[in-house]
Write a structure and sequence with these properties.
This protein is α+β, with helices and mostly antiparallel strands and 51 residues long. The protein is built from 1 helix and 3 strands, in the order αβββ. Strands 2-1-3 form a 3-stranded antiparallel sheet, with no helix packed on it.
Length: 51
């Protein structure tokens, strides 16, 4: 599974999140090419507007 597939499964829009894999922030253009392994630690931060 790559990061785009993960976001689709979770129904998350990629333009509203930042993703870190194993402590490294991943650029959005690398989502399709980054294949996740079982051991990977993925952190997804979702941006929410407010005032």
């Amino acid at each position: 599974t790559n990061l785009n597939e993960l976001l689709n499964k979770l129904k998350i829009q990629k333009n509203k999140v930042a993703i870190e894999v194993n402590g490294e922030i991943i650029e959005k253009n690398k989502y399709p090419n980054l294949i996740l392994n079982k051991e990977d630690k993925v952190e997804i931060v979702h941006f929410i507007g407010g005032g």
